[in-house]
Design brief:
The chain has four domains: 10-199, 2-Layer Sandwich (Heat Shock Protein 90), CATH 3.30.565.10; 220-326, 2-Layer Sandwich (Ribosomal Protein S5, domain 2); 331-396 and 516-554, 2-Layer Sandwich (formyl-coa transferase, domain 3); 417-464 and 471-507, MutL, C-terminal domain, regulatory subdomain (Ribosomal Protein S8, Chain: A, domain 1), CATH 3.30.1370. The chain has 16 helices and 25 strands. Helix 11 crosses helix 14 (495-507), helix 11 crosses helix 15 and helix 12 (431-447) crosses helix 13 (473-486). The chain is elongated, with a radius of gyration of 31 Å.
Length: 558
């Protein structure tokens, strides 16, 4: 009988391994740059030609290798990163399946130059997996890997490579991701001698974002710093007002490793809770740090996916982390450059006052705190001084946020106190509006509207809420029911959130309504104690800031 099982020749096995690791030129860039970072590089230079199909060269100033190590590195299953099975748990380096060098060398014209001491360097040449030469070279400490003619010996795979522009974009994305993980390392990427990425080392991650994508994006991001139990979440979340339906950047890193996890991004978006306009997607850059035994990184050939021991806990903490970042008034939109912090504020006797005026114990304010002056302009905006500049509040958006959070408490609690109308309202409605009332009758009652059928298409409203002195109960009810019937705010997944947002929008003080000083103080005070004060239910800002240093710059004082 003829044998049907055979041991593959090493060259064939290498090409199969290359198929797992090397999908396209960007895969080679990823593996080589990760090796450079694991070698302790402080600067990495990447050069590509023809999208990487003709040339990929990665140079670093890392630890380098001695000649014996360099020769061994081109053997299958050779690695400096693990020694035993236990090392697979909580691996802290980028690579661990065995170095990718032999796989890459099996499908290219490959050259390695490396030196561990800066005196004598080693140069190795491999063509299609066949070692051709090992000789001396002149090189400073570090490593350079040159890959030419990727897939030259596997034409069936080479013909599946995409156009030069597409492969170049993929390489840029790879370097961008790795540059985000290591802001302390310099990265340069050139394509056909044209610079595409050139970022210097920095100690501030936001500076790396600025260097990669520009100030236009960086200035819209809020910092995330949050920890619960063993999980720490850091990174950036975009202000809701700057989120757009397309073009968002969404990145997740686990223990410094870029991964694909749509569920983590979905949990982060849930943290925006009623602050995004329908269809908008915020940019998110999330770094998750947790113990090595809480995550399995050995579940994907290219290490792009991980498995969490408790994924629901991770998603919950990510959602809370984003919500915490959006919570402070410092998340309010800036107007101009400069410091974007409104400082810490509190409420005394219904008035907004800086917390810095509280004496010692934050639970016991000083007897006579100074109340900041409030000014209403255009019967729409409330202006007041903060400890770091000037704040401008949109009175409708601010009241909408306050009423939304109050309505959510009422809808999930015992409901709101309501005033019985001296003359009940009798309203004629459409069939869809009557259906909306039937579907939301209990929710209407909880915010203060007690409604009962009358005759035909008419209903009688016996009670109404009283959110502010200028409240028009009939107008609010009519607009609320029309919105519910028309499906407005349908983008909010939660039924209670949809109802609360609709009610808040219709019940809030309108733009163009004059407010007395006491009304302004009460509104600002309530806004400052809201959970998410900086944005209304449409995603618009409730507050914009003009920092003091921006004022001084414009008046020539800086």
């Amino acid at each position: 009988m003829t044998a049907t099982i055979a041991i593959l020749a090493p060259q064939v096995a290498d090409q199969i391994a290359a198929g797992e690791v090397v999908e396209r030129p960007a895969s080679v860039v990823k593996e080589l740059v990760e090796n450079a970072l694991d070698a302790g590089a402080g600067a990495v230079r990447i050069e590509i030609e023809d999208g990487g199909k003709s040339l990929i060269r990665v140079s670093d100033d890392g630890a380098g290798m001695s000649r014996p190590d360099a020769e061994l590195a081109l053997s299958r299953h050779a690695t400096s990163k693990i020694r035993e099975t236990a090392d697979l748990i909580g691996v802290a380096t980028f690579g661990f399946r065995g170095e990718a060098l032999p796989a890459i060398a099996s499908v290219s014209r490959f050259e390695l130059e490396t030196s561990s001491d800066g005196d004598v360097a080693t140069r190795l040449r491999v063509t299609g997996g066949k070692r051709e030469a090992v000789d001396d070279a002149a090189r400073q400490r570090g490593t350079t890997v040159t890959v030419r003619g990727l897939f030259f010996n596997t034409p069936a795979r080479r013909k599946f490579l995409r156009a030069q522009a597409t492969e170049t974009r993929a390489a840029v994305e790879v370097v961008t991701l790795l540059a985000l993980t290591r802001p302390d390392v310099a990265f340069t990427l050139t394509s056909d001698d044209r610079p595409l990425i050139d970022v210097r080392p920095t100690t501030r991650p936001i500076d790396r974002v600025h260097a990669l994508w520009g100030r236009e994006l960086a200035d819209t991001l809020l910092p995330i710093v949050y920890r619960e139990g063993p999980l720490e979440v850091r990174g950036f979340a975009q202000r809701p007002a700057q989120a757009k339906p397309a073009g968002r950047k969404g990145y997740v890193f686990v223990r410094g490793r870029p991964i694909r996890d749509p569920f983590i991004l979905r949990a982060a978006e849930a943290g925006y809770r009623s602050t995004l306009a329908p269809g908008d997607r915020p940019s998110l850059i999330l770094f998750l740090e947790l113990p090595g035994d809480a995550v399995d990184v050995n579940v994907h050939p290219s290490k792009l996916e991980v498995r969490f021991r408790d994924k629901f806990f991770v998603e919950k903490v990510v959602e809370e982390a984003v919500r915490a970042a959006l919570g402070p008034l410092a998340a309010a939109a800036p107007l101009g450059a400069g410091d974007s912090g409104l400082g810490a504020w509190g409420v005394v006797g219904g008035s907004a006052v800086p917390l810095e005026m509280f004496a010692g114990d934050s639970q016991a304010p000083s007897p006579e705190p100074r109340t900041p002056s409030l000014l209403q302009v255009f019967d729409t905006y409330i202006v007041f001084q903060t400890d770091s500049g000037v704040a401008i509040v949109d009175q409708h958006s601010a009241h909408e946020r306050v009423l939304y959070e109050r309505a959510m408490r009422q809808l999930t609690g015992d409901g709101a106190s309501a005033q019985r109308l001296l003359l009940p309202l009798t309203l004629e409605l459409t069939a869809p509006e009557l259906e909306a009332i039937d579907a939301h009758r209990e929710l209407l009652r909880r915010v203060g509207y007690e409604v009962e059928p009358f005759s035909g298409r008419a209903v009688v409203v016996h009670t109404a809420p009283n959110p502010h002195p200028r409240f028009d109960a009939a107008r609010c009810f009519g607009e609320l029911v029309a919105d519910l019937a028309g499906g407005r705010f349908g983008a909010l997944a939660n039924r209670l959130e949809r109802f609360a947002a609709t009610y808040a929008c219709r019940a809030a003080i309108k733009a163009g309504q004059h407010l007395e000083p006491d009304e302004m103080r009460e509104l600002v005070a309530r806004l400052l104690t809201a959970t998410l004060p900086a944005h209304d239910v449409h995603g618009r800002p409730t507050v914009v800031q003009l920092p003091k240093d921006e004022l001084e710059r414009r008046f020539g004082r800086a």
